[in-house]
């Protein structure tokens, strides 16, 4: 409901009384942290808590400039850090009486382990005492948690949020939408769901309820904020696709409840890695999870030995490559180059105009020690082979002088016949690899000319250090055995590899990622079988003999 608020704002020792009307569901004080008088972004050694003026008054905080890994509503929020002197969000003004104090909280990025406490002061901040019990902040799972505490304090009072962890810089917490109701005002208990926010692989039924007798629950499923004009909850909700349910409750004589959000995520099947390039959002990430049903091979795994750094895995199937960034540290498995994996559930994030996957749980490992047949490309082909393991023939290192060596995180200008000079494609060794590649530890000298197996990676052009105007790619060999490999002709690529074609007894197995015309010819050229393949795995039963199999425009010879 709309309610008129009387606020007193102290500025340069002049009291100014402001009269205005805002929609805050009858709350006496509501701060969304969207309109600060100044932005604070630094959380480093020299940064400190600073007084910032908001619409409700002056608040002391550390960081209020949000990034893409902060969690907040609207356009602003607050970040607290688990270090002494950087771990407080504090009101610098009193409110006259308080009934219920509530706010939203969640982990910053993939941080976890922060512990927050609500504190009160009735002597203008001279002394502080705890209110309620400490709360441990879990790793972010897609939606904020609500802290709500009945306080019923008469007279002037102010509050602050305090993190008890003060010696771990990576226990950062985001806070938003701070609310205080009037003294002795009862607030409707926020609706709760029978189903917590999470990923579910089948349709679900969701029941909503409020502990306040006689409360009416309003909800939306289209992402908009609920109001009294929204749908009234009466029967359980049947959820068949990914849905964000936003709810709040009202009851006569009570302050309206805080909003609760539940995200029921039902993954959509993805058959090929190339599909992720069409599914990624224009920017950032979205709520939807996808389940990969094909089989992909791990081409590389890298992460820093520091356990606070997310694991990164590069995957490749016969349609393309993608990188998985375990930003929220859901992966506990130890994956290795050559593992063939399937059934991984992940969100698709747009990172530098290429898909990056945030996994939800560990993958299913089908088999180990599988080889990737690195296709031969030129530097001109790099932009269409992002995150793939490829081979370059006759690649030149411009800095080679018979003594210059490979180095960690060092750019090397390269060229080949297709691209005599390039500033947007370079050789570079990432600085997040746990073990130094053995061609660096063995002081391998840069070759003037070589055949090279390498991963194609993509970076932000603003971070390239080479060319700040164009998209930027880099390549790197994973190990010494990727350098100075035998020349491989493009004509030598086995067409069997394209569709994962294999033979088991009298059965021919293959995969297609779209319906394809498949024809089987006898040795004398007669058509013995013709089908349209299904998306995914296919098989053909044939008698003993020699056959020519044509899938789409590719042909292979098979001996049974």
The CATH topology assignment of the largest domain is Jelly Rolls
> End-to-end span in angstroms?
76 Å
Which residues sit in consecutive blocks of at least 5 with pLDDT less than 50? 1-27, 463-471
- Mean pLDDT metric: 84
Number of strands: 43
Q: What percent of the residues sit in helical stretches (DSSP H or I)?
A: under 10%
Number of helices: 2
The amount of beta strand, in percent, is: over 45%
Summarize the topology.
Blueprint lengths: L1 E10 L2 E10 L5 E3 L18 E5 L2 E5 L16 E3 L7 E4 L3 E13 L7 E7 L7 E8 L8 E19 L9 E8 L11 E2 L4 E2 L4 E3 L1 E2 L6 E5 L10 E2 L4 E3 L3 E8 L9 E6 L2 E3 L5 H4 L4 E9 L3 E7 L9 E6 L2 E6 L14 E3 L2 E7 L2 E6 L4 E4 L7 E3 L11 E9 L14 E4 L9 E3 L10 H4 L7 E11 L12 E5 L25 E3 L2 E6 L4 E6 L4 E6 L3 E6 L4 E6 L2 E6 L1
Parallel strand pairs: 14-21, 22-23, 26-29, 31-32, 34-36
Antiparallel strand pairs: 1-2, 3-12, 4-5, 5-7, 6-12, 7-11, 8-11, 8-12, 9-10, 9-11, 13-16, 15-19, 17-18, 17-20, 20-21, 23-28, 24-25, 24-27, 25-26, 27-30, 28-29, 32-33, 32-35, 33-34, 35-36, 37-38, 38-41, 39-40, 39-42, 42-43
């Amino acid at each position: 409901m709309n309610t008129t608020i009387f606020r007193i704002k102290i500025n340069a020792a002049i009291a100014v009384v402001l009269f205005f009307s805002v929609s805050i569901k009858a709350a006496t004080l509501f701060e969304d942290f969207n309109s600060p008088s100044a932005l604070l972004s630094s959380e480093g050694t020299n940064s400190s808590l600073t007084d910032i003026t908001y619409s409700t008054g002056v608040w002391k905080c550390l960081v209020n400039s949000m990034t893409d890994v902060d969690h907040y509503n609207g356009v602003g929020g607050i970040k607290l850090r688990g270090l002494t002197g950087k771990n407080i969000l504090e009101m610098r003004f009193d409110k006259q009486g308080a009934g219920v104090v509530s706010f939203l909280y969640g982990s910053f990025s993939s941080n976890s382990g922060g512990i927050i406490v609500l504190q009160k002061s009735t002597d203008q901040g001279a002394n502080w005492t705890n209110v309620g019990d400490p709360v441990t902040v879990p790793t972010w799972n897609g939606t904020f948690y609500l802290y709500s505490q009945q306080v019923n304090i008469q007279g002037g009072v102010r509050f602050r949020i305090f993190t008890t962890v003060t010696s771990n810089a990576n226990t950062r917490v985001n806070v938003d939408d701070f609310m205080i109701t009037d003294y002795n005002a009862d607030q409707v208990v926020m609706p709760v769901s029978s189903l917590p926010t999470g990923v579910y692989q089948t349709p679900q039924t969701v029941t909503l309820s409020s502990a306040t007798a006689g409360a009416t629950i309003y909800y939306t499923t289209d992402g908009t904020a609920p109001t009294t004009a929204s749908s009234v909850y009466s029967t359980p909700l049947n959820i068949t696709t990914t849905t964000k349910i936003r709810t709040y409750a009202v009851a006569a004589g009570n302050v309206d409840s805080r909003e609760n959000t539940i995200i029921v995520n039902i993954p959509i099947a993805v058959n090929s890695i190339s599909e992720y390039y069409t599914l990624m959002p224009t920017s950032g990430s979205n709520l939807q999870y996808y389940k990969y049903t094909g089989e992909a091979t791990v081409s590389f795994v890298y992460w820093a030995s520091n356990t606070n750094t997310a694991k990164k895995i590069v995957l490749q199937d016969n349609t393309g490559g993608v990188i998985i960034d375990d930003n929220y540290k859901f992966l506990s498995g130890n994956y290795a180059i050559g593992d063939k994996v399937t059934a991984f559930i992940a969100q698709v994030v747009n990172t530098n105009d290429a898909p990056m996957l945030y996994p939800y749980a560990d993958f299913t490992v089908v088999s180990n020690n599988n080889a990737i047949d690195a296709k031969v490309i030129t530097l001109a082909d790099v932009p269409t082979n992002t995150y793939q393991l490829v081979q370059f023939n006759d690649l030149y290192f411009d800095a080679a002088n018979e003594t210059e060596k490979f180095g960690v995180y060092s750019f090397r200008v390269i060229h080949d016949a297709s691209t005599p000079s390039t500033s947007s494609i370079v050789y570079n060794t990432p600085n997040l690899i746990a073990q130094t590649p053995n061609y660096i530890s063995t002081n391998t000298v840069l070759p003037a000319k070589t055949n090279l197996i390498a991963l194609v990676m993509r970076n932000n052009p603003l971070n390239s250090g080479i060319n700040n105007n164009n998209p930027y790619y880099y390549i790197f060999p994973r190990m010494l055995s990727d350098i100075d490999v035998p020349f491989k002709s493009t004509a030598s690529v086995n067409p069997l590899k394209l569709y994962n074609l294999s033979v088991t007894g009298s059965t021919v197995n293959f995969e297609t990622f779209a319906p394809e015309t498949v024809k089987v010819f006898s040795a004398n050229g007669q058509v013995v079988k013709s089908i349209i393949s299904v998306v995914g795995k296919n098989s053909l039963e044939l008698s003993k003999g020699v056959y020519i199999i044509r899938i789409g425009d590719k042909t292979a010879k098979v001996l049974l």
